[in-house]
Amino acid sequence: MKRKFKITLLILILLIIYIYISSVTLLPKSIILMQGETLNLATLWGISIQEKSNTNPNIYEYKQGKIIQASSNASEEKNKELGKIDLSFNLFNSVSLKEISVNVIPKMKVVPLGNAIGLKLYTEGVLIVGMSDIEGQKPYEKAGIKEGDRIIAVNNKEISSTEELVETVNNTKGKEIIIKYMRENVEETTSMIPAKTKDNEYKLGLWVRDAAAGVGTATFYVPESGMFASLGHGITDVDTGELITIANGELVTTNIVSVQKGEKGKPGEIKGTIEGGSKLGNITKNTGFGIFGKINNKNSMNIDMEEMEIANRDEIKQGKAQIICELETGKKEYYDIEIQRIYTNNNKDNKSILIKVTDERLLEKTGGIIQGMSGSPIIQSNKFIGAITHVLVNDPTSGYAVFADMMIKEMKET
Fold this sequence. Notes:
The structure is a single chain. The chain is mostly beta strands. Among the domains are: 2-107, Sandwich (Immunoglobulin-like), CATH 2.60.40; 133-204, Pdz3 Domain; 309-412, Trypsin-like serine proteases (Thrombin, subunit H, Beta Barrel). The protein has five helices and 28 strands. It has helices at residues 2-25, 76-79, 162-170, 360-366, 404-412; strands at residues 30-34, 47-54, 60-63, 66-69, 83-91, 95-105, 109-112, 116-131, 150-154, 157-158, 177-183, 186-192, 195-196, 202-203, 206-222, 227-230, 246-253, 255-260, 269-273, 279-287, 290-295, 308-309, 319-328, 331-342, 353-357, 377-380, 383-392, 395-403. It has a six-stranded antiparallel barrel. A hairpin with a 2-residue loop joins β20 (279-287) and β21. It is globular and about 80 Å long.
């Protein structure tokens, strides 16, 4: 009986230890907060949180679960700086369990847009999207290179376009070449011997791409910096499904050609042309939370709205809200939606808010959320709260949106 009791007690103790450790280790390594927003970190008895480091101790500090402004005397310029506070979770103030970083987004205003825009992205190097035999040979077979890798140099010569790769390989006349390529942001090196074709050209058997283009919706603009954000999600390669690593890109005007209505199991689409479009600005970053860059042709952008405050997550409420989008060239409109669920603690992806289109005008035109509407800003109580990112394929009236603060954080890091 005693032995059974001891075993039960041991199991109970181990279970408690597991619960304690899990409550902390499952927390994300990085958390995003707007200045003044409550840090909702539930901890158990015996677990304490201590400030380990602070990039702006004279402006921000962590106190009783909240990031607060430490000094009201800080200059206006200082109050606009991004703060980063590292917190340490400790058991009984002695055993370190985990460290997390809290990125503090200063209070700021942006201009919501909703403009249909064109995006041209140019990759860093050339992206491998497929492979094929060359006269029965497979030059790539033992090279270790694969789809999704990016070739950045051949024989120490930088490669920035498909044309450069073709010319460089052909000029080798079949001699072994050294290829530098990137895989998941790690540089690798390999060698290949090009195969000769019937036309006396030399090829590697690799299908590559150096650019991508599409139509989407611009989300917001920051007048003081000229920065913009769009889409709320990144652009991925159609063949590899991977987020495209870009060297640069262009934001251009687009003419909407047609709107294809969405149906259950069949997403709709805004179809537009960017050929001959005017350049609006430069794209600097393609991320999982949107496309970012700088507008340098404001007059062609049709920025016709006033600045608006960004809502903290705890200010967002279930219920009525509106989106802004452009379904006819040069004509932006507000449409009614309903916020059905808010994932307040979500910091890992761009599915933070569950929404449903309720506006009969929009349902008649599009059937709900369609491709090309990604990035449409969402407004509630005269504050910018986020942007559309996804549609539910089996219910085009519903979809997801990303929190505004997550887009702001990505923009600040460009």
